[in-house]
Amino acid sequence: MKTGFIGVGNMGGAILTGYASSPRGKKDHIMICDLSRALCEQRMEEIPGLAMTDSIEDLVRGSDVIILGVKPQGMEPVMEAAAKAYTPDKLVISMAAGISTEYLENALGKGARVIRIMPNTPAMVGEGMIAVCRGKKATDQDLDTARAILETTGRVETVDEELIDCVIGVSGSSPAYTFMYIEALAQAAVDNGMEAEKARAFAAQAVLGAARLVLESPESLQKLRENVCSPGGTTIEAVKRLLDNGFMDDVKEGFQAAVDRSIEMTKEKQGK
Asked: Fewer CB near the last or first residue (10 Å), C or N of the chain?
Protein backbone atom coordinates (compact mmCIF):
# COMPACT_ATOMS: atom_id res chain seq x y z
CA MET A 1 0.00 0.00 0.00
CA LYS A 2 1.38 3.38 -1.02
CA THR A 3 0.50 6.24 1.30
CA GLY A 4 0.69 9.95 0.55
CA PHE A 5 0.66 12.76 3.10
CA ILE A 6 -0.44 16.22 1.97
CA GLY A 7 0.50 18.56 4.80
CA VAL A 8 3.15 17.39 7.27
CA GLY A 9 2.93 20.06 9.95
CA ASN A 10 2.13 19.30 13.59
CA MET A 11 -0.76 16.88 13.19
CA GLY A 12 0.07 15.53 9.75
CA GLY A 13 3.68 15.16 10.86
CA ALA A 14 2.67 13.35 14.06
CA ILE A 15 0.65 10.76 12.14
CA LEU A 16 3.41 10.47 9.53
CA THR A 17 6.02 9.83 12.23
CA GLY A 18 3.92 7.24 14.05
CA TYR A 19 3.00 5.41 10.88
CA ALA A 20 6.48 5.48 9.35
CA SER A 21 8.02 4.09 12.54
CA SER A 22 5.54 1.18 12.69
CA PRO A 23 6.05 -2.20 10.96
CA ARG A 24 3.10 -1.41 8.67
CA GLY A 25 4.50 1.86 7.37
CA LYS A 26 7.20 1.02 4.84
CA LYS A 27 9.14 4.26 4.35
CA ASP A 28 9.82 3.63 0.67
CA HIS A 29 6.05 3.44 0.12
CA ILE A 30 5.37 6.87 1.65
CA MET A 31 5.34 10.17 -0.25
CA ILE A 32 4.95 13.61 1.31
CA CYS A 33 3.96 17.02 0.01
CA ASP A 34 3.64 20.40 1.76
CA LEU A 35 3.45 24.06 0.80
CA SER A 36 6.66 24.42 2.77
CA ARG A 37 9.42 22.60 0.95
CA ALA A 38 11.68 23.23 3.96
CA LEU A 39 9.26 21.35 6.19
CA CYS A 40 9.21 18.40 3.78
CA GLU A 41 13.01 18.36 3.78
CA GLN A 42 12.99 18.41 7.57
CA ARG A 43 10.64 15.41 7.69
CA MET A 44 12.88 13.55 5.25
CA GLU A 45 15.87 14.17 7.51
CA GLU A 46 13.89 12.91 10.51
CA ILE A 47 12.56 9.86 8.62
CA PRO A 48 15.08 8.72 5.99
CA GLY A 49 13.63 6.85 3.04
CA LEU A 50 10.56 8.98 2.37
CA ALA A 51 9.84 10.38 -1.09
CA MET A 52 8.92 14.03 -1.62
CA THR A 53 7.03 15.85 -4.35
CA ASP A 54 5.93 19.43 -4.95
CA SER A 55 2.92 18.21 -6.94
CA ILE A 56 -0.33 17.28 -5.23
CA GLU A 57 -1.48 15.65 -8.44
CA ASP A 58 1.59 13.42 -8.60
CA LEU A 59 1.15 12.41 -4.97
CA VAL A 60 -2.52 11.52 -5.44
CA ARG A 61 -1.81 9.66 -8.65
CA GLY A 62 0.90 7.56 -6.99
CA SER A 63 -0.88 6.78 -3.69
CA ASP A 64 -3.47 4.25 -2.57
CA VAL A 65 -4.25 6.21 0.61
CA ILE A 66 -4.03 10.00 0.80
CA ILE A 67 -3.91 11.64 4.23
CA LEU A 68 -4.80 15.33 4.30
CA GLY A 69 -3.09 17.29 7.09
CA VAL A 70 -4.37 20.57 5.68
CA LYS A 71 -5.95 23.41 7.65
CA PRO A 72 -9.60 24.18 6.77
CA GLN A 73 -8.76 27.51 5.15
CA GLY A 74 -6.28 25.83 2.83
CA MET A 75 -8.49 22.94 1.78
CA GLU A 76 -10.14 24.37 -1.35
CA PRO A 77 -7.03 24.68 -3.59
CA VAL A 78 -5.72 21.35 -2.32
CA MET A 79 -8.95 19.59 -3.24
CA GLU A 80 -9.02 21.24 -6.66
CA ALA A 81 -5.55 19.85 -7.39
CA ALA A 82 -6.29 16.44 -5.84
CA ALA A 83 -9.51 16.01 -7.85
CA LYS A 84 -7.55 16.18 -11.10
CA ALA A 85 -5.73 12.94 -10.25
CA TYR A 86 -8.18 11.21 -7.91
CA THR A 87 -9.89 7.95 -8.85
CA PRO A 88 -12.40 6.02 -6.69
CA ASP A 89 -9.95 3.18 -6.02
CA LYS A 90 -8.11 5.56 -3.65
CA LEU A 91 -8.96 6.30 -0.01
CA VAL A 92 -8.79 9.88 1.27
CA ILE A 93 -8.46 10.59 5.00
CA SER A 94 -8.97 14.18 6.17
CA MET A 95 -8.37 15.74 9.58
CA ALA A 96 -9.58 19.30 8.85
CA ALA A 97 -12.09 20.75 11.31
CA GLY A 98 -15.30 21.99 9.71
CA ILE A 99 -14.76 20.00 6.50
CA SER A 100 -17.49 17.37 6.17
CA THR A 101 -17.27 14.07 4.33
CA GLU A 102 -19.97 15.42 2.00
CA TYR A 103 -17.76 18.38 1.06
CA LEU A 104 -14.82 16.06 0.36
CA GLU A 105 -16.95 13.67 -1.68
CA ASN A 106 -18.35 16.49 -3.78
CA ALA A 107 -14.89 17.94 -4.34
CA LEU A 108 -13.35 14.63 -5.41
CA GLY A 109 -16.19 13.43 -7.58
CA LYS A 110 -18.56 10.49 -7.96
CA GLY A 111 -17.69 7.39 -5.93
CA ALA A 112 -15.11 9.09 -3.73
CA ARG A 113 -14.06 7.00 -0.73
CA VAL A 114 -13.58 9.36 2.18
CA ILE A 115 -12.89 9.06 5.89
CA ARG A 116 -12.88 12.01 8.26
CA ILE A 117 -10.82 11.99 11.44
CA MET A 118 -10.35 14.28 14.41
CA PRO A 119 -7.00 13.72 16.14
CA ASN A 120 -5.36 15.80 18.85
CA THR A 121 -1.82 17.00 19.53
CA PRO A 122 -0.86 14.25 22.04
CA ALA A 123 -0.58 12.09 18.91
CA MET A 124 2.89 13.67 18.71
CA VAL A 125 3.95 11.46 21.62
CA GLY A 126 1.85 8.42 20.73
CA GLU A 127 -0.98 9.31 23.12
CA GLY A 128 -3.51 10.75 20.71
CA MET A 129 -7.27 10.35 20.87
CA ILE A 130 -8.50 10.02 17.31
CA ALA A 131 -12.12 9.90 16.21
CA VAL A 132 -12.93 8.27 12.86
CA CYS A 133 -16.09 8.60 10.79
CA ARG A 134 -16.63 7.40 7.27
CA GLY A 135 -18.29 8.80 4.21
CA LYS A 136 -21.01 7.15 2.16
CA LYS A 137 -18.70 5.16 -0.14
CA ALA A 138 -16.00 4.18 2.36
CA THR A 139 -15.94 0.44 3.03
CA ASP A 140 -15.32 -1.65 6.13
CA GLN A 141 -11.86 -2.36 4.74
CA ASP A 142 -11.25 1.39 4.35
CA LEU A 143 -12.16 1.86 8.01
CA ASP A 144 -9.77 -0.93 9.01
CA THR A 145 -7.02 0.66 6.93
CA ALA A 146 -7.55 4.05 8.56
CA ARG A 147 -7.58 2.54 12.04
CA ALA A 148 -4.36 0.61 11.38
CA ILE A 149 -2.59 3.82 10.34
CA LEU A 150 -3.96 5.94 13.18
CA GLU A 151 -3.44 3.42 15.96
CA THR A 152 0.30 4.02 15.56
CA THR A 153 -0.27 7.42 17.22
CA GLY A 154 -2.81 6.65 19.95
CA ARG A 155 -6.31 5.42 20.69
CA VAL A 156 -8.90 5.29 17.90
CA GLU A 157 -12.69 5.26 18.23
CA THR A 158 -15.30 5.20 15.47
CA VAL A 159 -18.10 7.78 15.79
CA ASP A 160 -21.00 9.00 13.69
CA GLU A 161 -20.13 12.22 11.87
CA GLU A 162 -22.92 14.06 13.69
CA LEU A 163 -20.76 13.71 16.84
CA ILE A 164 -17.60 15.18 15.32
CA ASP A 165 -18.29 18.64 16.77
CA CYS A 166 -18.64 17.06 20.21
CA VAL A 167 -15.35 15.22 19.66
CA ILE A 168 -13.64 18.53 18.95
CA GLY A 169 -14.81 19.87 22.31
CA VAL A 170 -13.99 16.81 24.39
CA SER A 171 -10.67 15.72 22.87
CA GLY A 172 -9.66 17.72 19.78
CA SER A 173 -9.37 21.08 21.53
CA SER A 174 -9.18 19.94 25.15
CA PRO A 175 -5.39 19.47 25.34
CA ALA A 176 -5.25 23.29 25.34
CA TYR A 177 -7.53 23.46 28.40
CA THR A 178 -5.43 20.77 30.06
CA PHE A 179 -2.22 22.69 29.36
CA MET A 180 -3.81 25.70 31.04
CA TYR A 181 -4.62 23.61 34.11
CA ILE A 182 -1.06 22.26 34.27
CA GLU A 183 0.31 25.77 33.78
CA ALA A 184 -1.78 27.10 36.67
CA LEU A 185 -0.70 24.23 38.94
CA ALA A 186 2.95 24.66 38.05
CA GLN A 187 2.83 28.43 38.56
CA ALA A 188 1.18 27.98 41.95
CA ALA A 189 3.97 25.59 42.93
CA VAL A 190 6.59 28.11 41.80
CA ASP A 191 4.84 30.80 43.83
CA ASN A 192 5.23 28.49 46.83
CA GLY A 193 8.98 28.08 46.31
CA MET A 194 9.41 25.15 43.90
CA GLU A 195 11.80 25.32 40.93
CA ALA A 196 9.94 25.90 37.66
CA GLU A 197 11.21 22.76 35.92
CA LYS A 198 10.36 20.57 38.88
CA ALA A 199 6.93 22.21 39.27
CA ARG A 200 6.17 21.46 35.62
CA ALA A 201 7.10 17.81 36.09
CA PHE A 202 5.04 17.40 39.29
CA ALA A 203 1.94 18.98 37.72
CA ALA A 204 2.21 17.12 34.42
CA GLN A 205 2.85 13.73 36.00
CA ALA A 206 -0.11 14.18 38.33
CA VAL A 207 -2.38 14.83 35.33
CA LEU A 208 -0.89 11.91 33.39
CA GLY A 209 -1.37 9.54 36.32
CA ALA A 210 -4.92 10.72 36.98
CA ALA A 211 -5.84 10.22 33.32
CA ARG A 212 -4.39 6.72 33.32
CA LEU A 213 -6.34 5.88 36.46
CA VAL A 214 -9.54 7.04 34.76
CA LEU A 215 -8.88 4.78 31.77
CA GLU A 216 -7.94 1.73 33.82
CA SER A 217 -10.30 1.95 36.81
CA PRO A 218 -13.89 0.66 36.70
CA GLU A 219 -14.96 3.28 39.24
CA SER A 220 -16.94 6.38 38.27
CA LEU A 221 -15.23 9.75 37.97
CA GLN A 222 -17.12 10.98 41.02
CA LYS A 223 -15.95 7.98 43.05
CA LEU A 224 -12.34 8.46 41.96
CA ARG A 225 -12.55 12.07 43.11
CA GLU A 226 -14.14 11.10 46.40
CA ASN A 227 -11.40 8.53 47.02
CA VAL A 228 -8.87 11.36 47.22
CA CYS A 229 -11.01 13.64 49.38
CA SER A 230 -10.51 12.59 52.98
CA PRO A 231 -12.89 14.42 55.37
CA GLY A 232 -11.14 17.42 56.87
CA GLY A 233 -8.13 16.90 54.60
CA THR A 234 -6.29 19.05 52.07
CA THR A 235 -7.82 17.77 48.85
CA ILE A 236 -11.41 18.31 49.89
CA GLU A 237 -10.62 21.93 50.68
CA ALA A 238 -9.15 22.44 47.22
CA VAL A 239 -12.11 20.72 45.55
CA LYS A 240 -14.61 22.84 47.50
CA ARG A 241 -12.83 26.02 46.45
CA LEU A 242 -12.77 24.99 42.79
CA LEU A 243 -16.45 24.07 42.84
CA ASP A 244 -17.39 27.30 44.60
CA ASN A 245 -15.52 29.26 41.92
CA GLY A 246 -17.40 27.52 39.11
CA PHE A 247 -14.59 25.25 37.91
CA MET A 248 -16.89 22.60 36.43
CA ASP A 249 -19.10 25.16 34.70
CA ASP A 250 -16.07 26.97 33.26
CA VAL A 251 -14.80 23.74 31.71
CA LYS A 252 -18.22 22.96 30.24
CA GLU A 253 -18.50 26.46 28.79
CA GLY A 254 -15.07 26.15 27.20
CA PHE A 255 -16.07 22.81 25.70
CA GLN A 256 -19.28 24.29 24.31
CA ALA A 257 -17.45 27.26 22.79
CA ALA A 258 -15.25 24.85 20.81
CA VAL A 259 -18.28 22.83 19.70
CA ASP A 260 -20.21 25.91 18.64
CA ARG A 261 -17.26 27.22 16.62
CA SER A 262 -16.90 23.85 14.89
CA ILE A 263 -20.55 23.96 13.88
CA GLU A 264 -20.10 27.51 12.57
CA MET A 265 -17.03 26.49 10.53
CA THR A 266 -18.96 23.65 8.89
CA LYS A 267 -21.84 25.97 7.97
CA GLU A 268 -19.42 28.55 6.57
CA LYS A 269 -17.76 25.94 4.35
CA GLN A 270 -21.07 24.47 3.19
CA GLY A 271 -22.30 27.94 2.30
CA LYS A 272 -19.53 28.45 -0.20
From this structure: C
